[in-house]
Amino acid sequence: MQNSMMYFPLTIGSLIDHAERNYPGSEVVSVETAGNIDRSTWGEVARNSRRLASALAKLGITFGECCGTIAWNNRRHLEIYFGVSGSGLICHTINPRLTPEQIAYVVNHAENKVLFLDKTFLGYAAKLGAHFNTVKHIVLLGPRDEEAAAMVPGLMFYDELLETGDADYRYPADLDENTPSSLCYTSGTTGLPKGVLYTHRSTVLHCLGGNTADGLALSNHDTVMPVVPMFHVNAWGVPYCAAAIGSKLVLPGPFMDGPNLVKLIDDEEVTIALGVPTIWQGLLQALEQSGSKVPSLKRTLVGGSAMPPSMIRTFRELYDVEAVHVWGMTETSPQGTVNREVKSQLGLPETERAKIRESQGRPPYGVELRIVDDADTALPNDGTTQGALQIRGHWIVESYHRSGASALTDDGWFDTGDVATLDENGFMRIRDRAKDIIKSGGEWISTVELENIAIAHPSVANAAAIAARHEKWDERPIVIVQKKPGADVTEATILALFDDRVARWQVPDKVIFVEQLPLGATGKVLKATLRETYGDVLITETA
Ligand code: ADP
Fold first, then answer.
1. Structure letter (DSSP) for residue 326
2. What pLDDT does residue 541 have?
3. What 3-state class would DSSP assign to 73?
4. Is the bond into 364 cis (omega within 30 degrees of 0)?
5. Residue whose CB lies within 8 A of the most ligand 1 atoms, among 198, 400, 430, for a mutation test
6. Using a 6 Å cutoff on CB, does residue 187 contact ligand 1?
7. Is the dihedral of CA 262, 291, 338, 453 positive or negative?
8. Beta-carbon neighbour count of residue 238 at 10 Å?
9. What is the pLDDT of residue 189?
10. Please, which contacts does 100-103 make with residues 24 or more away whose CB atoms are closer than 8 Å?
11. What span, in angstroms and rounded, lies between the C-alpha atoms of 306 and 325?
């Protein structure tokens, strides 16, 4: 039968072809691992990605095989994103902060044939190479480097590999859009990491959803800086979104500390930056010290863990930056919600609008959310009823890589492991992760809410609320606080912050000060580790 409309598969190759056709001169700025700045364009990135695809074919890597990366956010990594996926191979981005055992596990589980490494991570190849069962070629991201060559026998060099590729190579136009394109593993805080295998179709639809005015809302006029690593859920899809609109892209390399980010934002006139709250805590401290007002910066998109309301206020009031709360997970590609007001809310008093901004926001077209009780029965969207958050849509996982089993409920939803409320406008508010929530005397206490109160104090750099075991109440909240350098604050001052802000029975029983909160592979506080260390502190004290 004749189609009434043209059909083209939704492919990653078509995204970079579009960037090359329409925005060849638009800049890609990359901070290299050695610290120097590499200036390139979407046109060059597109050409190099095609040469890479051709070079990999000449190496004998065939359709559907997997190429791993352990790399920072930089230009070569960007070319791999498009060259590998565009040609029908799978781009497996590996989180270098996984343990060596986990890295060997994911490399073998994914059956990586090629491994691309930044120089920082060359040690993995030297140490773990013998455990990589399927890897045929290890490629250093850079030109020939004799010191590196001496460390890893047979090491190849990215720039030399590109030379062997054909710049006239074209991405297959008839690729089935359901072909797998990239692979990310969850960070494995509980058990072995699980792989989520994205497809061309899911990635392109996710990119189109992100590029709406109520989504990430990137524009060609923006200078976009993903601080979220390219090894963390494909940098939230930003490389694809930026290619679709040809915006200037700034890739910060390994230098994600506050002072370096301030300098990069000012030097490159970044307008939109994206990352987890711990990154922005570092940035805000650096701004305080440097006195820069980051005049170019219009918006930060913040997610991965809850953004404290005090951070939204500081960005708005001191720097005129809109801090937009987003939520998602590896299993959701990750964009699940973005906080954008609906028109009817624009006339509300500022205090109410500020409250709305604190929530995780609304789903874009393409995903649906619901909250359910223990029997998977849907609960009302009234803004107060809490339930298990479930999600479904075009870019949501159906089954984990090679698990052979569905990851969904019987009626086809993915359970996120988060506890949330939904309101009548679709705004979702995360109350907690189901495994973190504190159950005190049969009532629930949100750790996120307690943390937000503690973090708002000017002497507090970061805080985590956890459940401590209690003889009478089963669990009671305690707060672990990391002070700002040189700051002085007492337990009594922190505890007083909770008066009148939460019900009396929700006020934490104890405050513990630590030098540094333990952070996991994606910059989130490791609450399980804190529970192991401090979980018995109330029992020990009363015993
Ligand atoms: P990991 O499980 O390794 O942390 P993800 O990066 O996929 O992997 O984390 C997803 C989880 O992060 C979500 O289920 C949620 O608990 C948390 N999260 C993400 N964004 C937010 C946010 N804006 N507010 C609160 N929690 C968030």
1. E
2. 62
3. coil
4. no
5. 430
6. yes
7. positive
8. 26
9. 65
10. 100/124, 100/127, 100/128, 102/188, 102/192, 102/193, 103/70, 103/128
11. 8
Residues 140-155: tens digit of each pLDDT = 999 999 999 999 999 9
CA distance 142 to 163: 12
CB atoms within 10 A of CB 521: 21
Query: Spelled out in words, what is the top-level CATH class assigned to the domain 438-542?
Result: alpha beta
Instruction: Check for a shared fold between 16-256 and 438-542.
Output: no
Catalytic annotation on 331? yes
Q: Which residue has its alpha carbon closest to ligand 1 atom 13?
A: 329
pLDDT for 445-466, tens place per residue? 999 999 999 999 999 999 999 9
Whether the CB-CB separation of 327 and 430 falls below 8 Å is answered with yes
pLDDT bin (cut points 50, 70, 90) of residue 443 is confident
DSSP annotation string for 424-492: TT--EEEEEETTT-EEETTEEE-HHHHHHHHHTSTTEEEEEEEEEEETTTEEEEEEEEEEPTT----HH
Q: Is 298 a catalytic residue?
A: no
CA distance 343 to 188: 40
CB of 325 sitting under 6 A from ligand 1: yes
Q: What is the mean pLDDT of residues 174-186?
A: 97
Q: Which CATH architecture has domain 16-256?
A: 3-Layer(aba) Sandwich (3.40)
Ligand 1 contacts CB of residue 417 (under 6 A): yes
- Report how far apart, in Å, the C-alpha atoms of 334 and of each of 241, 261, 295, 326, 360 are: 13, 23, 29, 10, 13
* pLDDT value of position 322: 98
pLDDT level of residue 542 (50, 70, 90 thresholds): low
Q: Is residue 350 annotated as part of the catalytic site, yes or no?
A: no
Nearest CA to ligand 1 atom 24: 306
Q: Is pLDDT above 90 for 2?
A: no
Nearest to 180 by CA among 326, 431, 11: 11
Residue 182, strand partner residues: 91, 198
Are the beta carbons of 292 and 266 closer than 8 angstroms?
A: yes
Task: Report the chain's mean pLDDT, rounded to a whole number.
Answer: 95
Query: Does the beta carbon of 433 sit less than 6 angstroms from any atom of ligand 1?
Result: yes
Residue 59: name the closest of 110, 147, 135 by CA.
135
What ranges do the domains of the chain cover? 16-256, 438-542
pTM listed for this prediction: 0.94
First to last CA, the chain: 79
- What is the distance in A from the centroid of ligand 1 to the CA of 306? 8
What would the pLDDT profile of 8-33 be if each residue is shown by its tens digit? 999 999 999 999 999 999 999 999 99
pLDDT over threshold 60, residue 259: yes
Q: What are the tokens at 441?
A: 């005397």
The question of whether 413 is a catalytic residue gets the answer no
- pLDDT per position as a tens digit, 77-102: 999 999 999 999 999 999 998 889 99
- Cβ–ligand 1 contact at 522 (below 6 Å): yes
User: Is 41 near ligand 1, meaning CB less than 6 Å away?
Assistant: no
DSSP annotation of 361: B
From CA 321, how far away is CA 265, in angstroms rounded? 13
